[in-house]
Amino acid sequence: xxxxxxxxKSFASRNLGLIIMNQSPEKSPTPLAPHRPLxxxxxxxxxxxxxxxxxxxxxxxxxxxxxxxxxxxxxxxxRKQALVRSGLRPGMRLLDVAxxxxxxxxxxxxxxxxxxxxxxxxxxxxxxxxxxxxxxxxLLQGRGENLPFRSATFDFVCMGYALRHVDDLRKLFxxxxxxxxxxxxxxILEITRPSSAMGLRLxxxxxxxxxxxxxxxxxxxVSTEKMLEYYWATIAECVDxxxxxxxxxxxxxxxxxxxxxxxxxSEYVACEREVREPDHIRLSSPDSPxxxxxxxxxxxxxxxxxxxxxxxxxxxxxxxxx
Length: 322
Ligand SMILES: C[S@@+](CC[C@H](N)C(=O)[O-])C[C@H]1O[C@@H](n2cnc3c(N)ncnc32)[C@H](O)[C@@H]1O
Prior knowledge:
The chain is an alpha/beta fold. The chain is 36% helix and 15% strand. The chain has a single domain (9-27, 45-272), classed as Vaccinia Virus protein VP39 (Rossmann fold, 3-Layer(aba) Sandwich), CATH 3.40.50.150. A seven-stranded mixed beta sheet has the order 3-2-1-4-5-7-6, with helices on both faces. Helix 6 (169-179) packs across helix 9 and helix 7 packs antiparallel against helix 8 (222-237). Bound molecules: S-adenosylmethionine.
């Protein structure tokens, strides 16, 4: 289901739009999971996304704290720097996939992007509720592997620390590419397993012992400890960066690169260059203004689930100048 959310009714009424459900032709390459099934947490691969969703729903109120403590409170500053480094500029349309509590979207708005030109999508309702309190951007409930936007809609797609949680990297990257306009850019932030044995041990100690202890002292929920265990397991088991880079290239991205920051952080950047015919049917009312920016005809309140789930993405954006 798609849920549209926005913070203020005035925002919604100012901005008319229609979201088009996924129009991409079904491709079925061999799925590429980000890690092997983790039986200690769920019984079968089919139970994984439910498990992940319940975990993020339960830990959403603690998420910002976890993000802060895991990064020694450099996380917000770092997200901004990474977005700037990879070419995000005011005037662009941004899709924040796995938007969570909205830290990436918040960084983008802090860099001067119009809130009306930013959309966030995430499957966890709990995370979206936190996000909604923070960001006056459009929010949708959904998964990165099946994006409910027409092709070539965004100048920039970002995903922060969620690669390990999707079902299929190939499908995800295919969707990223589809919704990016030619010349659009992609940034994926991820935590990568340290290559040295010492680094691995230090990280394991920090994530499995120290942070949970701090959580207990701060009365964080039991789910938060489980989340940290799960985080650690997914980082330790994640496919190698080379596999991620190869999958991005296979999906047709250009200038695919990985920048590392310290021993843990990876920034995957890529560019959608090819000029393609749109593969969608454009749905818009005859009176839709041709201007830039995008907008929503109706806003379903994320908490009350009222309203009409339709919106239109209209207009063209000027070429970006990264
Ligand atoms: C670690 S949080 C990252 C949140 C945010 N991007 C940030 O930088 O703080 C991971 C997020 O990925 C979301 N997620 C899990 N599976 C997903 C999927 N298949 N597609 C998109 N998001 C997903 C979770 O609900 C969660 O909000």
